[in-house]
Amino acid sequence: MECTVSAPSTYNFFTYSIIAIFGAFALKREEKLNKADEINIEEQERFRSIGPSGQGDGDVEDDEITIDSEPRQTRFSIRRSQRDMTTIRSGNNSTGSKDKIRAYPFLCGLFTIHAKWYYYAFVALVESQAYYLIFVAFRYTSFTFVYVSDALAIPSAMIFTKLIMKRGYLWMHLIGGAICVAGIVVNTASDMTLQDGLEHAASFDHIRGDLYAVLGAVLLGLDDVLSEILVTEYGGVREMLFMKGLFGALISILQICFFEVDNMRELFSANYGAPCDISRRMVLFFTHIAFRALDVWGEMQFLLVSEAALLNLMLLTSDLYAALFDVARVGLHLTGYFYAAFGMICFGIVLYEAGPSPTESGNSENTPKDIEFHSREEDESFVADTEHTSNLGNKIRLNGELA
Fold it and tell me: If you average pLDDT over residues 382-388, what whole number do you get?
């Protein structure tokens, strides 16, 4: 905004390109490690069935070695195993939760993905258009309205989570979310009499900008819900980064070709009339895309261990960091409204977190720590329930009695 250059599809293209490159390298590395794990598991199974003497099961020491050498687990596989263990304990063990996730070749077999490619393409389309609409909204409406509209991503995420993932929210969750939204309203209402630094266009354009901001916020909530599903139920963070980055970059290229050729030329031109010189524009541009890429990566990591509604609640605290930057940059004086609003946001998040997590629907008596604790216990005791390890336990106990 400072340089009066608006090229949202160009910003998206460079951001998604960085994400796609990083995700591709990370995904290929993960595929190699998983392939090595599969080879190790096959060798262990063959050694277990044949044994060192060639007479079936090996002795106790060999079996102990087999149990100790566990395959590597990514954070995605750990969360999936915890979810399945919770389902087993609650008595809701469905065959769908235990089915092996299918694999699909992508780009002529260069990559292996665990969801249909058009699922990722749709999520990339939703997110890219959400950011595009929010950027375009700045051309027509005020920063204040755009900032308030972004808070609509919270109820949007809750509604789409309820409709798509069939999760239930308690009154504590709803009240906490409402308090957070109220905090945003309080903070922005205190600035309504101040000049935003952006002159409003004609009335029709102003309304159009408001609609862009609202629609962009709703799409952000939908994007977070769909991303959570793909990250936790299908391919994990690395696959999501690669696929979203790839399709997001392709979609952004098409938008640049149809809508932003002149804007992109203005952004990279040394003498196109923009108020900022080329060096300042490039510093702001690459700083923006670097932090956007980190933001996308961080959100995917957060969705791996939490859920979309809480993510949008946490993002409201960005108001604090924006205010601190404004204090350091332009000497902004913070009013009491700001501190009251930030306190409301923090209180709303605490209230939301005080209730049982919506991700543990039907198992609200188990906190994440309880699940992790039981998983560790059952890693030692539950193994004895399997056919192979029960025989092993009998051999160990027999040897102990003889000793």
Answer: 45
Q: How far is CA 267 from CA 3, 275, 278, 283, in A?
A: 9, 11, 8, 12
Q: Does 316 score more than 60 pLDDT? A: yes
The percentage of the chain sitting over the pLDDT mark of 70, rounded to a whole number, equals 67
Helix (H) or strand (E) holding 111: strand 111-113
Both tokens of 315, joined, read 């993002």
Q: How far apart are CA 147 and CA 134, in angstroms?
A: 10
pLDDT tens across 218-238, in order?
999 999 999 999 999 998 999
User: Taking a C-beta distance cutoff of 8 angstroms, is the pair 126, 186 a contact?
Assistant: no
- Asked if 72 contacts 90 with a C-beta cutoff of 8 angstroms, the reply is no
* pTM of the complete model: 0.73
Rounded to whole angstroms, the Cα distance separating 271 from 278 reads 8
Give, in order, the Cα–Cα distances in Å from 56 to each of 44, 50, 66, 199, 372: 13, 5, 15, 82, 35
